Batch of 2 targets.
Target 1
Amino acid sequence: MKRLLALLATGASVVGLTVLAGRPAQAATGCSAEYTITSQWAGGFQAGVKVTNLGDPVSDWTLGFTMPDTGQKVVQGWNATWSQSGSAVTAAGVDWNRTLATGASTDLGFVGSFTGSNPAPTSFSLNGVACTGSVTDPTDPPTDPPATGTPADVNGQLHVCGVHLCNQYDRPIQLRGMSTHGIQWFGSCYGDASLDALADDWKSDLLRVAMYVQEDGYETDPDGFTRQVNRLVDMAEARGMYALIDFHTLTPGDPNYNLDRAKTFFSSVAARNADKKNVIYEIANEPNGVSWAAVKNYAEQVIPVIRAADPDAVVIVGTRGWSSLGVSDGSNESEVVNNPVNAANIMYAFHFYAASHKDNYRATVSRAASQLPLFVSEFGTVSATGGGAVDRASSVAWLDLLDQLKISYANWTFSDADEGSAAFKPGTCNGSDFSSSAVLTESGTLLKSRISTADNFPTS
Ligand code: IDC
C-alpha cells in the first residue's frame, strides 16, 4: 500500500460522516470517513480518506463524494479505482479491499490539483446512498429522548470540569447507579421490567453495561455484543439513565492485548451513539499485571478513535492494579498524577470491594480526589472475589466518602448471580418481580436504600 505523506500543517481537516452501502433492506449500514489533506503546495495537494465500515459487512463498494470547488481535480489516486466527472468523484474498491467487515477500515488517497481555495469534499456516500451521520440498523429503531425530569434529561451532556463530573450547567454532580453482571451470562436480568425497576424504584442515575471481552464475551461475536450494548444504551436512554459502556477487560490484564478489538468496538459504538447525551465510555475495566505506562499508551490510542466519532463524551480510563490507582500493586495515584493520559474530558477509574479494600484505599481516594477526576465505575460490598458476606461498615464508610467527594459510582452487580455482590436473589431474573423487597439480597437492600434517595442536581 502506498503510504500517505506525513501530516503537514497545511489545511488538514477531519470530516466525520456516514456512508450507507447499497445493501439488502434489512442490513445495518453506516461508516465513518476521515478526510485529511496530508500535504499542499501551490496548485496541488495530497489527501487521504480513511473509510471505516460501521454497519454489516459490505462488498463491491464505491465511495462517492463532491468536490465543493470546481477547480479541484483528482490527478492520481491509489488503493481504489478513481474517476471524476465535474465535481463528482468516485473511488471503487479494488481486489484486496473490496470487502469491508464490520469495523474494518481502508485508507484511500489521491494527489489533486486545485485553483482558489481547497475546501474538504462533502456528501460522501457509498454505492449511491447518501450519508446520514450515524449507523442505520433496522433491528434497532431510534428511541425517544429521555423523559422530562429524569437524571439524563436534567443533566444533559456531561463533561469533566476540574476534578468533577459536571452537567450541562457546568455544575458538579454525582451519579449513583448499578453495573450489570457480564451480559454474556445474565442477559435475562436486563429486560424492560428490571430496567423499569432500576429507573423507577431504585431511582438509579446510571446503568453500567459490563461487556466482557474474553470469557465468552465480545471476542466470540463482535457484532452481536455490539448490538446488545447498543440496545442497553437505548433502554437506559428511554428511562432517563446514563449508560456507561464498559469494555470489560479482566484476563489478560494488559488492555493492549485487546487494542484492535477496542478500536473496532469503540469506533462503532461511538459513531452509533454520538448524538446521544447519556453515554459515557469506559475503555478498560481493570488493567492488571501491567505498567501504568502501558495502560496510558492504550488509552492514548483508543481515546482518539472515540473522539473522532463522538467528540464530546466523557471517557473513563482504568488504572493499574485492577483500577486501584496502582495501590493493589504497591503503588499509588502519583504515577497517574505525574504522567496523566494526554487527553481532555477524561476521568480515572477507581474500583474497590468493601470487605477487601479499606482504610488505606479510602485514604488514597481522599488524597487523589483533589488531583484527579475519579469515577468509581465498579465496587462491591463484599470481598474482591465478588462473593462472601457484605461488609456493611466498610461499605457505608465508602459510600459516605463518595457522597462527600461527589464521586459517581456503579455497584457490582444488578443481577441474580449466586454470589454476595449480586443485588437480587438467585432465580429473580427468571421471574417478573424486580421491585419487592423479597427479591433483594443484603447487598441489594443496602444499595437500593442508598441509590434511591433524592438526587440534588443543580439546574443553574
Ligand atoms: C466476577 C464475577 C464472577 C465471575 C468473575 C470472572 O462476580 O461471577 O466469575 O468475575 O469473570 C472485578 C471484576 C469483575 C469481577 C468482580 C468480582 O471487574 O469482573 O466479577 N471483581 O470478582 N474486579 C474486582 C472484583
Target 2
Amino acid sequence: MLKVLVCVSGGGTNLQAIIDGIEQGKIRNTKIVRVISNNPGAYALTRAKEHGIEGISISPKEYENRDAFHKAFLNAVEDASPDLIVLAGFLVVIPAEVIRKYRNRIINIHPSLIPSFCGTGYYGLKVHEAALERGVKITGATVHYVDEGTDTGPIILQKAVEVKKGDTPKILQQRVMEEAEWIILPQAINMIACGELQEEGLC
Ligand code: GAR
C-alpha cells in the first residue's frame, strides 16, 4: 500500500481528483495518510475531512521565522511516514531538508507544459495569464519529480490542452484542470503505486 501525503494551499480540486481516483479504483494500492495545508482556511481541508482523511494546517505565519516553520513542516511529514509526497497546488517552497530526505518521492502538478511558463513566479492563475499573453495555441499540465530547483525535476507525465479564442485566464485554468491536471496527477500516482516508474528508471 502506497502511503501518500498530499500538500495543498487552496481549493483542492487536484486533491479531490486523487480522492476520487482512489475511491473509484483508478489509483490502486494507495491510501492518503495526511493532508497538510499552509493555509488554515483552504477548502482542501474540508474536502479531506469529508472523506475521513486527517487534514492539518501548518502556516508560516504561525511561526516566528522560516526555520521554525520548516522544522514543524518536516515533523508533520515524518510523523505521517509517507512513501510519496504529492504537491497538489502547494504554493510554498518545500524545505531543502524535506527534498533531501524524500528525493524521488515528491511529485508536483504544474499547470503548463514545462519548460514553458514555469519557475519562480509562475503559479496558479499567473501561469495562464502568461500563456495567453504570449499567444500560445497549446498549453497543458505536467507532473514532475521535485528537486532543489523550481519546476526543474524529471518529468513524469504531460498532457496538452488547446487554447481557444476568447479564453480568459480563469476559463483556460478550468480547461487545463479538467482536461489535463485531474487526469495525469491520479495517473502518475497510480504508476508509482504499481511500480511502473521504477521500470522506466524514473524513480
Ligand atoms: C492547480 O492548477 C495547480 O496546477 C497549481 O495550482 C492549482 C491548485 O488548484 N499549481 C501550481 O501552480 C504550482 N506551481 P487546486 O487547489 O484546485 O488543486
